[in-house]
User: Fold this.
Amino acid sequence: MQIAVLLFPDVDPQDVVGPYEVLRWIPGAQVVFPATARGALPTERESLALVANRTLAEVERPDVVVVPGGAGEGRARQDAAILAWLRRVHETTSWTTSVCTGALLLGAAGILRGKRAVTHWMAMDELAQFGATAVAERYVFDGKVATAAGVSAGIDMALALATRIAGPEVAQGIQLGIEYDPQPPFDAGSPAKAPAPIVDMVRSTLRAAAA
Amino acid sequence: MQIAVLLFPDVDPQDVVGPYEVLRWIPGAQVVFPATARGALPTERESLALVANRTLAEVERPDVVVVPGGAGEGRARQDAAILAWLRRVHETTSWTTSVCTGALLLGAAGILRGKRAVTHWMAMDELAQFGATAVAERYVFDGKVATAAGVSAGIDMALALATRIAGPEVAQGIQLGIEYDPQPPFDAGSPAKAPAPIVDMVRSTLRAAAA
Assistant:
């Protein structure tokens, strides 16, 4: 089973690695990282670089596609080769998925039309333009399309996907292997739970970072 | 404030990216990725490669050190240059930290002697040989040394560290920014919670993967 995790410049590295860390343990999984060209790609803020080990053309019929988001998503959405690749591989995937603002890339490719979907909480308003219905859940499965909320939600979505692909025993084994017994020091992980001044601060910070 | 996340071949990528994703949002943080040489390094199973952007010699006085673990940790522990670097930078760090079996690297460098510490649940028995007291918590702070449990625990440890460095408002903002409102589909993330047959399966799988 081939799993393709799309890369592009200024991708959010956690969007990439969270699902990868889960899905790579599915028995028989082979994970590849396609981009428009092979080689090292900077992630957000040009600190950690990830290496694309396939071109888009080299990944023709992946069983699973994972589309991450991040600061570079807006530019990736302007890349006709990426959108064409997403449309083409989606025809034969078993699962087409996104994390965070990767949902907007799926949307731009026409894949979310008529679908229920989720993305990072700050980008929820943008889903409607692609004909999607925004649903404020941790992750949303609609047919073979699965979308996850912001960044860290990719781990939860991937565990749910591993359950569908390989069954609950395998998924629980993966969860135990990565010791995913989350104990965040605060209950501030969604705009509904975080104090209002924190929500305002994050809106300003992320808007500035995206500018 | 310079934050150095150590890289080595066959590191676990989530051990690297989880703390990075949190700590990079601390105001004034500059995150670097040192290794014995600059360039792309394979992570576990040779799929995703991460790029080291500094040599060890180029990172002389980091304020924070993060030591990840993974399948390559055993070989990294045999690398005298890595152990010498850890000992040297630990003299002047504000915080010296590890994720997963990265704690064993800290232990081999002599940094855990007399300390309370945690590591991946499968490696807890190995801490005693380094003079550390194993504590089955999500993360443990002892003086300026912080250790996290397996893989995904690096996110929780990094949020706790961000709180100590920059205060609870900043840490809550980071948590909201990465939408860390975890909702794993199972409650199987620790050996105390997972069904016994799942624990046995994971022991076998991870031992085979490490061999």
